[in-house]
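Hey L., structure's done. Input below.
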Amino acid sequence: MIAIKIHKHTSRQETNAAIVERVQAGDADALQDLCETNKRLVGYFANRYLSYVEQRKDLDFDDLMQAGCLGMCLAAAKYDPGRGASFATFAADYIRGCVKTQQKPL
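Output:
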């Protein structure tokens, strides 16, 4: 007899909430999972601010992506799934703030 595993279909919001709970519990691998699952969100904000940075030669898209991932890590530390907001909505301000501070001239 072959055992069949049935996987429950989870939404992105449920997945992010579970990953954030693992991050807040201290799981180091969960932080990497969070960055991988929300890379498109970080890329969206990095791409929006890329035109402002094109005048500077010392910053590129990868630098903005790295700053956005830092903002996502900060948001993961403060996120509370019980408040009803999705993680992407909550993290958007943190990601945007870190990307904007990265683009400021030195």
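DSSP finds six helices and no strands in the chain. The chain has one domain: 12-103.

-- N.
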